[in-house]
Specification:
Blueprint (H helix, E strand, L loop, with lengths): L1 E10 L4 E10 L6 E10 L3 H8 L4 H21 L3 E6 L1 H5 L3 H12 L3 E3 L2 H9 L3 H4 L5 E7 L4 E7 L2 E8 L3 H5 L5 H15 L5 E6 L1 H10 L7 E2 H13 L2 H6 L5 H4 L2 H15 L3 E3 L5 H11 L3
Parallel strand pairs: 1-4, 4-5, 6-9, 9-11
Antiparallel strand pairs: 1-2, 2-3, 6-7, 7-8, 10-11
Helix pairs in contact: 2-4, 5-14, 8-13, 9-13, 10-13
Length: 295
């Protein structure tokens, strides 16, 4: 038996994450991927970038300190290989490349800027394929702070994938107008037209939290009716009530409402009754990508 250590760094618009995995290789058996540790920091780069077009000095310092800490944690864990990916906020920041260069020089962490298509392909390398049945059609939705990735799976294969600048941080800051919602609605209806047995696969911290709040067992799907009711319930509470009464972290208590809105609206437009929540995302995909790309 051989145990290898891999790490994924996901630099999103709302939060950044360090995920470490034990990858267990044993002759004659399938490789086992086991989560070792997860660190999440709510730096929220998107609030800077979507309002002002740049990452502020303050958030650059916070991000740099986080990368230094992540580098130390990876050393302690004995990580042999890592990949750091930055998405929407870093892509759109006028000083994004400068920040990346500064972080590399000061911490040694090399960050890759990836677009929505690359992000979707990395996520598709996860255990998502184990959930998808050839006789059903799925809309995979990965909700982020700056954008949301939508992928249609039909007959077990990707039919089409698109990234929309409708993310939780943008919605919180009033940066998504009606025309953007209309574009999404038309895109979804056009690309699922004629397809039957439609359901949604959701990923991201918010849908994972919603699934936990529902009390359903792992692998049990959410219903559209429950999710719609939960959206109205959450919206009826103040921010303070969502923190004190529901026990949500402050950095989750605000973004969970726009995230739920994205899932509810999408399900309504395509007529989906079920939302599967396999609890996978970009970080998990990075681990698989690293492993299967090994020399």
């Amino acid at each position: 038996m051989k145990v290898r250590k891999y790490a994924a760094i996901d630099i999103g618009s709302n939060a950044i994450r360090l995920l470490t995995h034990n990858v267990i290789e044993e002759e004659g058996k399938d490789t086992l991927f086991k989560k070792s540790a997860l660190v999440r920091l709510p730096i929220r780069l998107g609030e800077d970038v979507f309002k002002n077009g740049t990452i502020s000095k303050r958030n650059e310092e916070r991000l740099l300190n986080a990368m230094k800490a992540f580098q130390l944690l990876m050393d302690v864990h004995g990580v042999e290989k890592y990949m750091a990916c930055a998405t929407s906020a870093m892509r759109e920041a006028d000083n994004g490349q400068v920040v990346i260069d500064n972080i590399l020089e000061a911490s040694g962490v090399q960050i890759q800027l990836i677009d929505g298509e690359r992000e979707a392909s990395i996520i598709a390398s996860t255990d998502l394929k184990n959930l998808i049945r050839k006789d059903e059609t799925y809309l995979y939705i990965d909700v982020g702070g700056g954008s949301t990735e939508f992928t249609v799976f039909s007959e077990g294969k990707i039919k089409i994938s698109e990234s929309f600048k409708i993310g939780t941080v943008r919605l919180l800051n009033g940066m998504v107008d009606d025309s953007m919602w209309n574009d999404l609605e038309h895109w979804l209806k056009r690309h699922v037209k004629g397809l039957s047995n439609l359901s949604i696969i959701g990923s991201g911290g918010n849908i994972n939290k919603l699934h936990k709040m529902s009390g359903r067992k792992e692998g049990e799907s959410l219903s559209y009716i429950w999710l719609r009711a939960q959206y109205h319930f959450l919206s009826s509470l103040t921010f303070e009530e969502r923190v004190s009464e529901l026990g949500l972290n402050p950095d989750r208590a605000d973004v969970i409402i726009p995230a739920t809105q994205i899932f509810v609206s999408s399900a309504k437009w395509i007529g989906a009754k079920k939302i599967h929540v396999p609890k996978i995302g970009l970080s998990d995909g990075i681990i698989k990508t690293l492993y299967y790309a090994k020399e």
